[in-house]
Amino acid sequence: MSKKSLTKRSEDYSLWYNELVKKADLAENSDVRGCMIIKPHGFAIWEKMQRKLDDMFKETGHENAYFPIFIPKSYLSKEASHVEGFAKECAVVTHYRLKASEDGKSVVVDPEAKLEEELIVRPTSETIIWSSYRNWIQSYRDLPLLLNQWANVVRWEMRTRLFLRTAEFLWQEGHTAHATAEEAVAETEQMLDVYADFAENYLAIPVLKGVKTESERFAGALDTYCIEALMQDGKALQAGTSHFLGQNFAKAFDVKFADKDGKLEYVWGTSWGVSTRLMGALIMAHSDDSGLILPPRLAPKQVVIVPIYRSDEDLEKISARVEEIMQDLRKAGISVHYDKRDTQRPGFKFAEWEMKGVPLRLAIGMRDLENNQIEVARRDTFEKTSHSLDGLTEYVQAQLEAIHENIYQKALEFRKANTHYVDSYEEFKQILEKDGGFIYAHWDGTAETENAIKNETKATIRCIPLDNPQEEGTCIYSGKPSKQRVVFAKAY
Amino acid sequence: MSKKSLTKRSEDYSLWYNELVKKADLAENSDVRGCMIIKPHGFAIWEKMQRKLDDMFKETGHENAYFPIFIPKSYLSKEASHVEGFAKECAVVTHYRLKASEDGKSVVVDPEAKLEEELIVRPTSETIIWSSYRNWIQSYRDLPLLLNQWANVVRWEMRTRLFLRTAEFLWQEGHTAHATAEEAVAETEQMLDVYADFAENYLAIPVLKGVKTESERFAGALDTYCIEALMQDGKALQAGTSHFLGQNFAKAFDVKFADKDGKLEYVWGTSWGVSTRLMGALIMAHSDDSGLILPPRLAPKQVVIVPIYRSDEDLEKISARVEEIMQDLRKAGISVHYDKRDTQRPGFKFAEWEMKGVPLRLAIGMRDLENNQIEVARRDTFEKTSHSLDGLTEYVQAQLEAIHENIYQKALEFRKANTHYVDSYEEFKQILEKDGGFIYAHWDGTAETENAIKNETKATIRCIPLDNPQEEGTCIYSGKPSKQRVVFAKAY
């Protein structure tokens, strides 16, 4: 395989993904098992996501805070299903000091510096946060409490994959406290809407909104809402979750408030999060065999300009004009980069920016300069147009919008084409093997059937869509009666 | 002590600080030893610092990336002085799984899930980053490499204090790689200037720029540059450091590059960082017995407006006008909050915003409305002025600038008044005990003298100022000859 070209998606989707992540300089594996290094280009995209999501959280009344990375072991145990969900993948700190080995040649853990109680590197922060909420909440006046934190978390996964499943990942976790169940449910649903809005309007990925079945719920939640996206290989990816926690954590950590009549009640809670996994969704939803395709609203560099020149004198003339173009573009809020490296040829630069997913590439040579024009190439369609330098900013703006719309529509059409309604288990298995995609099928509502299907086919129930149409039917597996179809898929 | 008032600085500076941090809702101790919880108001200030610093790093050509939180134990040992500096305060991960205890009542560490090699929660990231640089750097074309990361780090401190010294803290760490020593030194100095610029123009704190003595250097550096600020109790606070690493980490991790002639050379490095410690500096440099005083350029809410009203009808009229005022202020880039809570009286609100350090408080009642005016109160001087609603935005803008200038000048004058030149050890000890402050004194340049003075007086050499005037003198402690004065102080 040459250094530049990618394995084709049709040949090996999984290899294509791994190669793309590395060649587009997004991330790589570190020497620490399962932990990734997010490289500058990847991190710049994540930063754009963070900024936008953070704005959306603040617009809906949330504030940021920061809680400790360590959780005392005993805290995890306070909510029974929570500890069951996380105990098997915890990084445990047991000591707080190293010392020189006896031969003086290395360092060893100092056995005398053993912690009385082990500390867990947070896999999620409900327990440490609700333990604080006990001190912060006394009365209905202290509610709602609407906090979020941006943090790193660790879950000791055995099989890891860059962005999709890593031992350490970056995320945000919202943790809110409310006086009533209704208000907490409304918050859970609001944040799901925020995530769906972000997915569609920034990632340019259509998502299904739904609720998880009991066996797929967050450990400690009464209800888990989710957004599910479909990748180009027909597998689903859970892109965000929002949990209605009921009073589970309030009871585990004894968080009560006095209502207006002075009566003590347990507080209602929610939590919700998205992570660097979204990077995986972004890559797999849009990109092609030439590399990454970035949704324009999340592209750190929306436009790259490449000069085509023979002499230093030409370059100087071109550069002078490019400076003006860049000023205009920047005034319009467009981020633009001028690639005037003299160590690389234009063809190399074109391929590099294609691989890195820059939405629009502008190229300008002496002939263009004389004709007052510039070449505009779209990353999503590879279309090239010569456009006048007059009105260029407006054209670029319109093209960026057009790219967003185009890749969103393409993903939506792909989802439509890969959404199936099946009424028999045979058909279910056939479609699952052949095309994948979202499969709407009747299910009898039991965990037994859900597990049996999962064990036999690797397909899971991704969600029960919100506002799901109710219809009589029979379970494709057990033949028992069913009131609605649910969405099955193989998933990341 | 009432819930509202603080212990006076003159009575107990240390207690005043602790109370202020809690009452201004900046941070609190968590249940995890030495780890703090940064509360929303504190975190909002930190976010403003982050944004501005991040902009400054990007303007000087740096990109963000993210490296793993865990460092294999063996990596720490590769640079000899580095491991010596950090081994004694490392949080060590030894296991990756918990399991139910035999009685089923709690969870215990699963002894079968022991890591082959222990992982250290990063106290700083030189080792894991230089281990990556080995793969990223081959040729002079790959240099300079200018990266930064925003991260949490852990140093197991035995005596902790909110913001000033905590087991976990938030920071940024820049890590750069260069082809020549000169370029690396220039980078080290440039980042020191960025920090000093930020301290003076955003924190409103004058700082001394200098270099550390050998014994105060970062573990693994050839030179540590620092900015030192003086707090109101006469103690110094190191507010940022920038390290010239020479080729130490390149040698430890075998990072070489081919120069233009194809010759292999070790790479030159720097690292530089500031942390949530800056929150401590901000608090201690400016605040008073009524609470926090925020420098306007870092205040999350620069202006708070409080309505003074008797009836709902009045409130409605006032609010309508306030909406217009806020629109104008926001257009001018001023962040403003309207505090129309009906659960609290104006006096309570005034005290609360004073405690939280909001630079300008505006109050408006029916009489003001009729007279087309508003009351403007400055947090730094407590001055109150009635100002016409015409031209209010310009006035507010000017007042915010005036507050920045005033608190900076106040801190500068305090530093001048508390800067002493002494020529005898007796005088040195007297001033140190009585007033503290920066003490310029001759030192013989030996670590022995430095340590002796430290042991006897707790004063350390904060720095040797940049461009330090050279003058003949004799060491205040040993009487040996000296070429320059250095700056001593007790420090946080």
Secondary structure topology:
Two copies of one chain form a homodimer.
Chain A: H1 13-23, E1 27-29, E2 36-38, H2 40-59, E3 63-64, E4 70-72, H3 73-76, H4 80-86, E5 92-95, E6 98-100, E7 107-109, E8 114-121, H5 126-136, E9 145-154, E10 168-178, H6 181-201, E11 208-211, E12 223-230, E13 236-246, H7 248-252, E14 256-258, E15 264-266, E16 268-275, H8 277-286, E17 303-307, H9 312-331, E18 336-338, H10 346-356, E19 360-364, H11 366-370, E20 373-378, E21 384-388, H12 392-417, E22 419-421, H13 425-434, E23 438-442, H14 447-457, E24 460-465, E25 470-474, E26 481-489
Parallel strand pairs in A: 3-9, 17-18, 17-19, 22-23
Antiparallel strand pairs in A: 1-2, 4-8, 5-8, 6-7, 9-10, 10-16, 11-12, 11-24, 12-13, 13-16, 14-15, 19-20, 20-21, 23-26, 24-26, 25-26
Helix pairs in contact in A: 2-6
Describe the structure.
Chain A has helices at 13-23, 40-59, 73-76, 80-86, 126-136, 181-201, 248-252, 277-286, 312-331, 346-356, 366-370, 392-417, 425-434, 447-457, and strands spanning 27-29, 36-38, 63-64, 70-72, 92-95, 98-100, 107-109, 114-121, 145-154, 168-178, 208-211, 223-230, 236-246, 256-258, 264-266, 268-275, 303-307, 336-338, 360-364, 373-378, 384-388, 419-421, 438-442, 460-465, 470-474, 481-489. With 492 residues, chain A is α+β, with helices and mostly antiparallel strands. Chain A folds into three domains: 13-94 and 106-286, Bira Bifunctional Protein, Domain 2 (BirA Bifunctional Protein, domain 2, 2-Layer Sandwich), CATH 3.30.930.10; 296-413, Rossmann fold, CATH 3.40.50.800; 419-489, Translation Initiation Factor IF3. In chain A, strands 3, 9, 10, 11, 12, 13, 16, 22, 23, 24, 25 and 26 form a twelve-stranded mixed sheet that branches. Chain A has a five-stranded mixed sheet with strand order 18-17-19-20-21, with helices on both faces. In chain A, strands 4-8-5 form a three-stranded antiparallel sheet. In chain A, α2 (40-59) packs across α6. The first copy, chain A, starts with 12 loop residues before the first helix and ends with a strand. At the A-B interface, β2, α2, β3, β4 and α3 of A face β2, α2, β3, β4 and α3 of B.
